[in-house]
Amino acid sequence: MKLSLEQVEHIAELAKLGLTDEEKEGYRAQLSAILEYADMIQQLDTEAIPPTATVLPLRNVMRDDEVTPSLPVEDVLANAPDVEDNCFRVKAILG
Amino acid sequence: MALYELTIREARALLRKGEITSVELTRAVLERIEALDAKVRAYLTVTPELALEQAKAADARRAAGEDTPLLGIPMAIKDVICTKGVETTCGSRILKGFVPPYDATVIAKLRAAGAVLLGKTNTDEFAMGSSTENSGYFTTHNPWDLTRVPGGSSGGSAAAVAAGEALAALGSDTGGSVRQPAAFCGVAGIKPTYGRVSRYGLVAFASSLDQIGAFGREVADVASVLGIIAGYDPRDSTSVNVPVPNYEEALMPDIRGMRIGIPKEYFVEGIQPGVEKALREAIRTLEGLGAVVDEVSLPHTSYALPAYYLIAPAEASANLARYDGVKYGLSIPGETMWDGYRNTRGQGFGPEVKRRIMLGTYALSAGYYDAYYLKAQKVRTLIKQDFDKAFERFDALVTPTTPMVAFKIGEKIADPLSMYLTDIFTLAPSLAGICGMVVPCGMADGMPVGMQILTGAFQEPTALRVAYAYEQATEWHKLRPPLDGKVEDKEVMRQ
User: Fold this and answer.
1) Could you say which architecture CATH assigns to the domain A5-43?
2) Architecture label for domain B12-300+381-494
3) Taking the CB of the first residue and of the last residue of chain B, which one, N or C, has fewer CB atoms within 10 A?
């Protein structure tokens, strides 16, 4: 599976990674090699095999809807680069 | 014997008798760090004042009649585990300066037991790597040969324990990140069953695989730490509510009649001859102790690597979406909000993390999901079934931990696939979610070799028992890296 430059750019945009031209070329070669290796799994017949998302026999772990103490807001915001009125401040999303 | 050389078991005995204090012990380890870590570079952050305060508190608790298996024991913590008030970077530039407002559950448990936390150890960025060379800060050096890697991603924790810069340490293991560095640095390490230890406060890499584990200089020490950190946690819905056994009771040097399987797929061409020789010898030792040894086949072993490198990056690409320069860490604003994301993530993540985010995003993207991610999850089922079948016949499986001893710094960094191949023996057990324990079992090319002992889900006592019996019958765990001459060199240089 050889990736094109356009595919690499598409993936980078999906993941919101700003890459240099040099990085794009590097990842194109490396990801192609890794995917070529990964194609080995296509040899296996998995028609009747269910997927494993987790090894645990768990589904939808629920808890009681009880109010418990949360972390202090100021502690949580202390690591944020930009804060206003107890909120994270971001640039306009629409516009 | 210097105090920093003590095992937990030895230190605990001296603390209980009142022959040493935790302050003395902690000071000795801090001095060792001071003398050595400029060369080994195991730590990203050392917190001497906090450590001495905790040591004082531990001594006071002991004076008041309290006792726990870890009271006053100095330990190191991999920097992917949140420590309240102490910077936690995950070895990433994108989290430079992040100070968690809370403790991970394992840290809260260590504090409650009175362990002394020395600082945070180096790791490949977000635990993605096999050598610590992917750390955003620097590479840790193997205490046995400073020109070699300590393994990864928990290389800082393994090196710290091997070098006497901590009595024990926590690491995390997603595809081998406790077991591989334990083998490379010649210490004992355990990756418990998925769900055995709470992941609350462990910064997520691949959530269906991540598990916190422990390093020590002997098996008993690993058992002591596991006994404290294991257990159900309502804050981690994937922690499993099964009782925590007394792991120290599992430490019996008797494995007569125990059925041990040797998976033939783990002794393949390409394995370093010295590693294979050490393992064959170790297996003979287990037989000599009365274990019933037989060959077994895990036919899907070779598919573990491709399955892992689709599943883990896919999960990582989702988990790492949270680093957007808004809530914490690096923030490089741009013209628009989206430009800010692209800048922050493009410049904040290192090459391997970006590579895995790209790989995972691709495996999950429209048109490729079925062929890659879903297919890999089905292969995961086959790998798990291999182990389920093997554990019908065997109590434990024994394999090499890695195909080779620790490699040279720089040797594999340019070729990601060759780096991934160093993990071929640890990936399948991770995909199956089972328990894996590593103990030193020989030397090759002057470097330690590690034996991997695999047991079924929640069968940690069996893994510890095999490891302990082997350790009691051999001397490998008593070897220490030849570091002391080098420390003297450094002191001469200072004068």
Assistant:
1) Orthogonal Bundle (1.10)
2) Alpha-Beta Complex (3.90)
3) C
- Residue B22 among the catalytic residues: no
> What are the residue boundaries of the structural domains of chain B, listed by start?
12-300+381-494
Does the CB of A27 have a partner CB in chain B at under 8 Å? Answer: yes
Indicate the helix (H) or strand (E) that contains A64.
Answer: none
Cα dihedral B127→B176→B129→B181 (10° resolution): 100
B200, B235 Cβ separation under 8 angstroms:
yes
Q: Give CA–CA dist B92/B77, Å, rounded.
A: 16
Record the tokens describing residue B339, joined without a space.
């430009």
Which of the residues B358, B384, B412, B459 would you substitute to probe the A interface, choosing the one with the greatest number of A C-beta atoms within 10 Å?
A: B358
**Strand B74-78 vs strand B116-121: parallel, antiparallel, or unpaired?**
parallel
Structure token digits, residue B210: 């991540």
Residue ranges per structural domain of chain A? 5-43
Residue B338 in contact with partner chain A when CB distance is under 8 A:
yes
Instruction: Work out the average pLDDT over B461-475.
Output: 98
pLDDT computed for residue A77 by the predictor:
96
Spatial distance between the Cα atoms of B39 and B144, rounded to a whole number of angstroms: 12
Contact list in B for residue A12 (CB cut-off 8 A) is 358
Q: Of these residues, B130, B131, B135, B153, which one is catalytic? A: B153
> Mean pLDDT over residues B324-335, rounded?
96
Tens of pLDDT, residue by residue over B244-263, are 999 999 999 999 999 999 99
For residue B491, what is the enclosing H or E element?
A: helix B484-494
B301: nearest CA in chain A? A41
Per-residue pLDDT tens over the stretch B56-70: 999 999 999 999 999
Write the DSSP string, B247-316: GGGG--S--TT-EEEEEGGGS-TTS-HHHHHHHHHHHHHHHHTT-EEEEE--TTGGGHHHHHHHHHHHHH
